[in-house]
Amino acid sequence: MPIRDLRSAPTGTEFRPDVAIVGGGPVGLTIARELANSRCRVLIIESGGADFEAAQQSLNAVENVGEPIARNGVESPGRGYNGSLSWLNDIAPFELRNRGLGGSTHTWIGKCASFDEIDFERRSWLPVSGWPMTRESLTPALDRAARLLNLGPNFYDERLFGRLHSPPDELGFDRDLLRPFFWQFSHERDQRGEPMRFGRVAAELVAPNIDILTDATVTAIHLDESGRRVASLDLRSVDGVRACVRPEIVVLCAGGIENARLLLASTSVMTGGIGNGRDVVGRYLADHPRSTLLQFDRRDIDIVARHFNFYGLSDEGVTRFYLHGLCLSPDVQRREELVNCAAYPVQIHSPADPWAALKRLMRGDCTRLASDLAVAVGSPAFLAKGTFRRVVQKRGMMHRSDTLRFDVMAEQKLDAESRVTLSDQRDRNGVPLPRVAWRIGPTEVQSVKRLARALSAEFVRNGFPRPNLADWIAADDDSKAAFTDMAHPSCTTRMGSDPATSVVDANAMVHGVDGLFVAGSSIFPTPGHANPTLMTLGLAIRLADHLKTLLEKRSVATLTPRLVAQEAVAAPAPVDGL
């Protein structure tokens, strides 16, 4: 699998793959992986490189004219990152993107879940809701995605209780209001505590038909004169090297902001942008509005944490851990016309946490040697009990914590005016910046409040200490509602059968443009509340299966038998490879 940096190529180089995948993040790499060792030549085009480079990351800039915005007396909840990743809370809204092989997995924590059955339904109170497929039909692809992500079985609801080694206690919460919900965390196979990094997937993607081109930003898509097929892609490196790609098939895997931006900025044939004849590209922008719902006093943390923690499941000789939380039931969503949302526990560990101290000592971290030794030596009973929980009960470690709160991520009711357009400002490549106008509507706010109040009431009814609701929820003051984005932009090139409300069809092909496909969260018809990675990879595998069928049906004569790079200036004889 050759990896070539565009900066090393002569200006004017032309590449002729069968399939051009724009974006070397988890979605693009998954599609390439599924196409590996086939007869089609695949070129992965990545704007970044193998390592972080500031010049390339600067291309993530946006003009933000929507939420989240600063309000007097309202403190932003941030994205909730802690420890070594806390700096991610300071990245501007919609700029937390990673240009580089592996994409978003450079800075994720591995959190995964699939969408619920209700997320796929046409819900009368949510305009343009409904998926062109069922959750059941997507199950095989999701299971394949889970294996790639090194996850356990794809169960995220009460069905897990019968499979967990030592499940949470049945708490008597009203199932008409709240349902159990679980998340898994994707880890490297040889590093249990390290989230899975798709840079390794790229490095292991060794196949004779796969090539990777780095530091290659696609600046425009050009259609043929009919406007029905892609003719070429313009490429540019950060230091100005220009090149061209002439593919048979293109798959955009650049993310929820960049997929829309690239279609809108490609105006050489269609002045309003590709796929935008009905002014839909970039509309329906959704994210996962995040906020804090409630918090327990420090003295009550252990009482609650034992029920909302990590729980193990033995699968193929490996213990997989699932985080226990709660979501609004489908019944209350339908009855009260709310969106889907889920609450998950967040513990902030004390500086005197014995397990953290022991971990630092074991890895030779001497920055707090004296205090860590004192904490570890002084906590034998605590460490023994934690070891028993982990090894025998297969539950999450016990920690000494200063904070236990429940945070929420909510689905959004789609709004056509929540959107990505093009700014008058331009990046270093001369491409207009994305102008992001994210809106959070009253349905999301009411759903989050309903979840918070239901949680509080059910905790008290079941004998738990009363939690402290977030101030704005306790005061019922929506003007003080505090949300932030979670860097999960979606729905900007949504999937559907009606071009008046969608950009791609049920096979993820742009309406009216043969051979131009889009993948990733931008094609979600609705965003759900779950972290998007598992769902995006399930859809990517589904698309790869479709592409394999499509390529098999096409005449061999119409497919370029090998990837050709030739210098446009002198038009020399073609050469193999990169």
What are its keywords?
578 residues; alpha/beta; FAD/NAD(P)-binding domain; eight-stranded antiparallel sheet; 13 helices; 22% strand; disordered C terminus
General description of the model:
Keywords: FAD, Flavoprotein, Oxidoreductase. This is GMC family oxidoreductase. It comes from Ensifer oleiphilus. One of its GO terms (molecular function) is oxidoreductase activity, acting on CH-OH group of donors. The chain has a domain at 1-65 and 97-151 and 195-283 and 416-440 and 488-578: 3-Layer(bba) Sandwich (FAD/NAD(P)-binding domain). Strands 6, 7, 15, 16, 17, 18, 19 and 22 form an eight-stranded antiparallel β-sheet that branches. A six-stranded parallel β-sheet has the order 1-10-4-3-14-23, with helices on one face. The protein is built from 13 helices and 25 strands. The longest helix is centred in the last third of the chain and has 21 residues, at 533-553. The N and C termini lie close together (10 Å). It has 578 residues and is an alpha/beta fold.
